[in-house]
Amino acid sequence: MKIETQQPIEWEINLSSPDILFIDDAWAAQEKLNGKRCVVTCIAGALSAQTRNGNPIKLPAKARALLPLGNYIVDGELVGDDFTAFDALEIGGEDVRGMSLNDRLRILSEMSVPQVQTFYGEDSKRALYARVKGMGGEGVVFKRTAAKYKGGRTEFAMKLKNWKSDTFRVVSFDGKGIELEFDGKPAGRCAGAANPGDLVEVRFQDWTKAGKLMHPVMTEIRDDLR
């Protein structure tokens, strides 16, 4: 069963308006984890997981060991061998997606699921962003505290990134690096190893006027998007 997950709308770092996300108490902030989106389902103690496209994904032993048994569905990120939840979809057979984010996070906090910390208030949100930026992290996600869970891209979740990242298709690999394309157009060359046709996540500074990537770094092969 495919569960449509929330996909944050990306805000460019140089927008003149993101200050409202820090100032307005209607928005909370969570660190944007740099891993694979993963929905974990536990039914009668049996754990399973799937990607945001509905494909099954194997949970590492470490992640399975830290997840409680019971009946629930949680949305989160798989980073290496660690799963971290940042939202709840169903608890004890009850669909909670119609509740506010604050209520869903309260329910999540009552479970023993590893979860990302949520920050409220301008000072705390700015401190989180400064810390993540200082560590070279991807950025933060601002979420509307009163919003219901909504699948797909949503105006109730905004990403503020320290650098850009996107998914590209590998055109060729010559043993030293890969040629990339984006939306069917050449996007330039990047160091890394992957097979033609693979989808890869690439971190980069910006686009050139010629439509090529500036300072690209391949971070992972996106097997979860196949």
Topology:
Blueprint: E1 6-11, H1 19-23, E2 27-31, E3 36-43, E4 46-50, H2 61-66, E5 72-79, E6 82-91, E7 94-95, H3 101-109, E8 118-119, H4 122-134, E9 139-144, E10 152-161, E11 164-173, E12 177-182, E13 185-191, E14 199-204, E15 206-207, E16 213-214, E17 217-221
Q: Which descriptors would you attach to this protein?
A:
D-amino Acid Aminotransferase, Chain A, domain 1, OB fold (Dihydrolipoamide Acetyltransferase, E2P), 4 helices, five-stranded antiparallel beta sheet, globular, five-stranded mixed beta sheet, 17 strands, 226 residues, mainly beta
Notes on the structure:
There is one protein chain. This protein is mostly beta strands. The chain has two domains: 6-161, DNA ligase/mRNA capping enzyme (D-amino Acid Aminotransferase, Chain A, domain 1, 2-Layer Sandwich), CATH 3.30.470.30; 164-225, Nucleic acid-binding proteins (OB fold (Dihydrolipoamide Acetyltransferase, E2P), Beta Barrel), CATH 2.40.50. It is 15% helix and 44% strand. The strands form four sheets. It has a five-stranded mixed beta sheet. It has a five-stranded antiparallel beta sheet with strand order 4-3-5-6-7. A five-stranded antiparallel beta sheet has the order 13-12-11-14-17, with no helix packed on it. A hairpin with a 2-residue loop joins strand 5 and strand 6 (82-91). The longest helix has 13 residues, at 122-134. The model is unreliable at 12-16 (pLDDT under 50).
